[in-house]
Write a structure and sequence with these properties.
224 residues, alpha+beta, 7-stranded antiparallel sheet, 3 helices, 31% strand, binds 2-oxoglutaric acid, binds fe (ii) ion, Oxoglu/Fe-dep_dioxygenase_dom, iron, dioxygenase, AlkB-like
Length: 224
């Protein structure tokens, strides 16, 4: 019953939000969402467990883990140096292919998609209280697309301008299965998450309460 009225039942327009931003609602099939949730629980076993990254001494409200490169503020590393030095889990090849398919389908630019080789995934878990302040994804060295996948409860995602964390911005609702890409003129747009909407997830994704967001990034860094 619950799943009849989850957010995936809403008819939502998708496509180009503004130059460089694409939103494809329900891009991940229900089966893919369920499969990724199962993988998410496996990632939780380590080697670096989900953690609240500290920014300026304060823990973020989201719990994060990384694949490929460990992210800590302003820095990517191969070991989680802020958490005892465990090696980061490897990037998974199905995520690379998923990212390439996402870029190809959203943008229609086959060359940009083929050149896209994301080597890091940041996996965030939001409980119902969690939010993310306005920021730029600017720790990557090259200007490749950011591919964002959302699963579980819906979120209000705030998409700002490229100059500062203030207005103008626009609020988008990201539901389970949604794909969002920012690239080109919007690659360095400020963005954040202002709210999680409880009880909006499809029951079949089996996450329980909360939201997962996975962002795929191409860092431009070389492992040494
Ligand atoms: O949860 C989201 O939709 C955005 C996450 C994000 O901005 C990030 O991980 O840098
Ligand atoms: Fe971000």
């Amino acid at each position: 019953m619950e799943s009849l009225f989850d957010d995936s039942a809403l008819a939502r327009a998708g496509g180009i939000v503004r130059p460089g931003v694409w939103h494809l609602p329900g891009w991940l099939s229900p089966a893919a969402q369920e499969w990724i949730v199962a993988r998410f629980f496996q990632w939780g076993h380590g080697p670096v467990p989900p953690h609240r990254t500290h920014i300026n001494g304060h823990p973020m409200s989201v719990q994060s883990l990384s694949l490929g490169w460990h992210w800590s503020p302003n820095r990517y590393s191969k070991t989680a140096d802020d958490l005892g030095g465990a090696p980061v889990a490897p990037m998974e090849q199905w995520l690379v292919r998923l990212g390439q398919n996402a870029v190809a389908e959203a943008t229609g630019d086959a060359q940009r998609a083929a050149a896209y080789l994301p080597d890091a995934a940041i996996v965030n878990f939001y409980d119902h209280q969690a939010t993310m302040g306005m920021h730029q994804d600017a720790d990557e060295r090259i200007n490749a697309p950011v591919v964002s996948l959302s699963i579980g409860d819906s979120a209000t995602f705030r998409l700002g301008n490229t100059e500062n964390r203030n207005r103008p911005w626009q609020d988008l609702r990201l539901a389970s299965g949604d794909l969002l890409i920012f690239d080109g003129p919007a690659r360095f747009a400020y963005h954040g998450v202002t709210r999680i909407h409880p009880s909006t997830a499809p029951a079949g994704c089996h996450l329980g309460a909360g939201r997962i967001n996975i962002t795929l990034r191409q860092t431009g860094l070389q492992a040494i």
